[in-house]
Design goal:
The protein is of the alpha/beta class and about 525 residues long. The protein has helices spanning about 20-25, 40-45, 70-80, 90-95, 185-195, 205-220, 230-245, 265-270, 285-290, 295-320, 330-340, 370-380, 385-390, 410-430, 480-495, and strands at about 5-10, 30-35, 50-55, 85, 100-115, 130-145, 150-155, 160-165, 170, 225-230, 250-255, 275-280, 325, 360-365, 435-450, 455-465, 475, 495-500. Helix content is about 35%, strand content about 25%. Bound molecules: xanthosine-5'-monophosphate (XMP).
Length: about 525
Amino acid sequence: MSVEDEVILVVDFGSQYTHLIARRIRELKVYSQIVFPDVSVSDIEKVSPKGIILSGGPRSVYENNAPHLNSEAFDYIIKEGIPILGICYGHQLIALKLGGKVQDEKKKEYGTATVDILESEGIFDGLKKTETVWMSHGDQVYEIPQNFVVTSKSDTSPIAAFRNASKKIYGLQWHPEVVHTKNGKKILSNFVYNVCKCSGTWDLSDFIDENVKKINSIVKDGRAIIALSGGIDSTVAAAITEKAIGNRLYAVFVDHGLLRKGEAEIVSQAFAGHDINFKKIDAKKRFFKKLEGITDPEKKRMIIGEEFIRIFEEESKKIEAEFLVQGTIYPDIIESGRSQHAETIKSHHNVGGLPETISFKEIIEPLRELYKDEVREVGRKLGLPKKIIGQYPFPGPGLAVRITGPVTEENIRICRDASAIVDEELEKASVENIWQAFAITLEDKVVGVVGDQRKFGRIVGLRIVESQDAMTANFKKLSWDVLENISTRITNEIPEVVSVAYFISHKPPQTIEPC
Ligand code: XMP
């Protein structure tokens, strides 16, 4: 764990919103860190947190194997008087731990609800008598612990919030981190500033200087290598490292032939005139040969990941760098920490995966504490091109996972050209709040009619979604005009395509990438 001046710890009980809580706290200029329920007393002592937030979670507190905060840690937090805010499952857990009662409600409650605020102070300072909030729970507290008072109720939840102000313990049945809770940010701000007495020290301006110093002290006069993917994370990690060690950073950019239109040029230009030792490797033939005839998405991912590592190993041997730089960001670290409980939906191959047969003195991950939007801000501060900073997330295996059939020249070309049209039309129409937007080459064919002739042609699927963190996503409700422009251009400009389909499923159940 890193040690910042002011830290709020967020204990993750498996809620889909845990990252959202942590991000909201950072938006309030306070550094937040996610930990798991087995967090130890010594881990907490190291960080000396200003406050602890217990997240929601999908389980019932009475269920077998439901996650509970390590008892020693809980006792320590109470003994030290560290402020606690429990959200949903966290609220129920506080009640249970301190002698209250929780029960499984027959009627689950999901969606917006109106609650009465019984006292406008503490974490509810400045709130109105009634508030709109986001509820998502099965269980609820029906008896509060001794010395607690109920601070909010609704028709369905007689104990929608409680507190023990002298012990600085607060519980909320609803989710303040979700935008549908109208004054959710105000509640979190009250907790962080009024209860935890934070002063707001988390500022990205110092981040670059501190990391440049840190990298310098690690690498000294040695050499480091990084695999550039064209994505924002590895580019920003390279730019920070270059600021520290200049031409002793070797950036290997592998063009696997599965990149977006113009991407290779954008990456090359981003580092043109810089000190960095930039090397672009044209490996298209090599990748296409390995991928010949493969349609299974997981196999594609494995082959691409493996091939990347082989090429990167070959280059590392030539360069003999002692240090490996990776663009790992905070959600990557947390997701891998959780992997023992999570199911593999897709094996995410991130470019720059660790070569097994080369050992490095140390791995440097300058962005390991940052969320994507923070990485973007650092990129802006470093003066990186807008095209790189503003781009959508792009998977390591590239366009290969946006083709439902085999990786062929034609399939890739259709996907690449159609995606470029999607980008252009969305930009022309100034569509905002898009997480990712791209085209998919589908394997099925349909009958079309072109110039009075029957044509059994290709279908392109469009995936355009809104999301906060890619854990969940909603399809973008685009105007018919924009969809029509995209469809018309794709069928006019890509001769093989006769039909364009729009995926109107959210995640879940559909994932963002099709394969
Ligand atoms: P899914 O498809 O799981 O994607 O909803 C969630 C986010 O992860 C990205 N993604 C990947 N990123 N390697 C990556 O580096 C991968 O193999 C991969 N698969 C999905 C996806 O673009 C979305 O942002």
